Amino acid sequence: MKQVKVGIIGFGTVGTGTVKILLNKRDLIKKRTGIDLVLKKVADKNIEKPREISLPKELLTTDAGEIIRDPEIDIVVELVGGTTVAKEFIMEALKNGKHVVTANKALLAEHGNEIFREAFERGLKIGFEASVGGGIPIIKVMKEGLVANKMLAIYGIINGTTNFILTKMTDEGIDFQDALRQAQTLGFAEADPTLDIEGIDSAHKITILASLAYGIPFSFDRVYCEGITKITAQDIAFAREFGYKIKLLAIAKILNGEIELRVHPTMVPEHYLISKVDGVFNAIYVEGDSVGSTLYYGRGAGSMPTGSAVVADIVDIAKGVNTMPLDFSEKYSIKPMEEIESMYYFRFTALDRPGVLSKISGVFGEHNISIASVIQKGRAQGAVPLVILTHKAREKDVLQALEKIDKLPVVSDKSVFIRVEGEEA
Amino acid sequence: MKQVKVGIIGFGTVGTGTVKILLNKRDLIKKRTGIDLVLKKVADKNIEKPREISLPKELLTTDAGEIIRDPEIDIVVELVGGTTVAKEFIMEALKNGKHVVTANKALLAEHGNEIFREAFERGLKIGFEASVGGGIPIIKVMKEGLVANKMLAIYGIINGTTNFILTKMTDEGIDFQDALRQAQTLGFAEADPTLDIEGIDSAHKITILASLAYGIPFSFDRVYCEGITKITAQDIAFAREFGYKIKLLAIAKILNGEIELRVHPTMVPEHYLISKVDGVFNAIYVEGDSVGSTLYYGRGAGSMPTGSAVVADIVDIAKGVNTMPLDFSEKYSIKPMEEIESMYYFRFTALDRPGVLSKISGVFGEHNISIASVIQKGRAQGAVPLVILTHKAREKDVLQALEKIDKLPVVSDKSVFIRVEGEEA
């Protein structure tokens, strides 16, 4: 039986899950694939701290180099995270002829071009199933399952923290800060939640999916990225009145050869399946030109789900598979955010006076923005919310119109807008 | 560049989609995989009839043998359907050393053991992604993406016709016959819809998924199979009152080493994602012991979606991949249907007299069936529906209790029951 030796750098949450699966599923994987995966060594800065699974001393080391340079090890699994030492480990492992498996979305999104070039030139493989969607085998689906498809569009809920927060806000009518605090208490958000709530983690992941879908270089710096910190319970309630939910979507789509890459809160029709993806769960909607609409759902994080993806990669590489000669060198052009077209939701805080709607819609008209529906809430002494849904408009026109509207004397606070997906009314 | 030659037997709906994709995506697939897929020949009884894509005469033949015996052809794609000539074509192709790709779920479910044994002994591959879930890459997901998982449970909506009918009945309150007629008019149901509406097609497909999940021989004759013909608009309405939808689920799960294999209408909590899978769409929920809950959604039929799956299989085989040495020889035991445990929905047609509920619940009590909730609709002169939801009970106890209840003088019509999934109340 073919033996393949594996070394793991990083014995944290995902490392622990991976070790557990490698040990507990060794026989199952042998039976299913004819390959014997041998865990040769695990490296971590701290090998004293107790973990859910305890390993014999000789399997542990504090020196990652022992793994990277071990001539017996075939596959190096990088699970330390971050973009500094992790990169060094991976580049060195490749230089030593090792295949690499990683869950590190930040690293691939930001340095993927360099890493994949190195691997490509050396004929080595990089498994990165665990970098997007946790246990959901979305990378394999896109690379292999949908290999006969041009990917028309990808819409992903690919950050569990923000989806948990938005779900809490929606179900309980609470504010962002309260929901964030709950997420932190439950361990679904970190003490510094910036990467998640500002959409950066989602941007990392959509960078990877877009490169896979379109064969283009990793283009993290070209992703438009807007987080969920400004979403209010009020906007969620209005969205519901119009039949929408607010989700943080990561979007990649192609139209007339131009690729859109963006992460932002999005109003999604509530009867869409992706609207029902709640809590920490992830889902990726992929539209292929042959297959049509598909969706993949599961846990986007966690020790065992992510470990499941890491081990699937190890198995694929051990089988000598891993498919595409991953070469992200397609020529491409990314549409500037100002040029995208979308439907929009606006909330204005306006004095409740006759003529306000006519003034605002006048500005919209000047900028080719056509109104689909309006909600004007009850009469009040001071300012009241005026909510407008538009047909498809160009982002640039919207920004220009808003600048004018925010200067109108009848408009008190700064206006709010959220992009809207779905069929046009 | 590696060239792989393909012959297709059957130029119908799926054959046409496959041919279109092979021709139109030849360059894309070359670029993505480094493999040049050459369509060498297409066989059909009728090669005169106009199709969506027209092929040069020399590519067409009425003799499948020309493909099966062509020494240049590497992969034979069987798309004629049925369990007679299709089987001969596949067995002969294998004997001629060809790899085989098929969308034929009936054939695999009923003769898969013989076919896979032949392939296994000859070291040949059988691709069958298109046999379940149309364009959804569920076979690949289960074989490879979730290779590190023991599959705890599979719940599938894997027949688009019945899901369309149930969705119509649910959304429009119409009866089964009306919904079936609509499905036939729209081309979603065949003139003879038996295979679909009696659950047989779903049973074929769950047979395949169960063999894949548990490594067991194809066991179609062991699948409990009940269709949707007895579902009424009334039961759908009551289900809704309890917070459930009625779906035709194909279920495979393992508990204490015993496998359950069953297809039947099932009440599913309406907040479950799979409840939202409507119309002709399919979805398969897979629970793995590492990955947890996952779900895969897409079109379960159609020329292009199914063609997408066929071509993905061709690519995998061309790459020399196709993973597991498919050997369905695990020892197994399938739980007799009478021994399964489930929650149940009952609808009795009872005279509206005091003491009816006490009589019925008395019988339930004798058979260890515990009631969770009751709806008794308005008072009427004659018989009224009495609806009961139970906690988990054993199927055998339920059947015995029903036999007694149906003999009670206060119960007029034959009782109706539907199995219920979800958490216990």
TrEMBL record, chains A, B:
Pfam families per record: ACT (PF01842), Homoserine_dh (PF00742), NAD_binding_3 (PF03447)
Enzyme class: oxidoreductase
Pathway: Amino-acid biosynthesis; L-methionine biosynthesis via de novo pathway; L-homoserine from L-aspartate: step 3/3; Amino-acid biosynthesis; L-threonine biosynthesis; L-threonine from L-aspartate: step 3/5
Annotated keywords: Amino-acid biosynthesis, Metal-binding, Methionine biosynthesis, NAD, NADP, Oxidoreductase, Threonine biosynthesis
Cofactor: a metal cation
Superkingdom of origin organism: Bacteria
Residues at which L-homoserine binds: 190
Binding site for NADP(+): 9-16
EC numbers for this chain: 1.1.1.3
InterPro entries according to UniProt: ACT-like_dom_sf, ACT_dom, Asp/hSer_DH_NAD-bd, HDH, HDH_cat, HDH_CS, NAD(P)-bd_dom_sf
SUPFAM superfamilies: ACT-like, Glyceraldehyde-3-phosphate dehydrogenase-like, C-terminal domain, NAD(P)-binding Rossmann-fold domains
Binding site for NADPH: 105
PANTHER family given in the database record: HOMOSERINE DEHYDROGENASE
Name listed for the protein in its UniProt record: Homoserine dehydrogenase
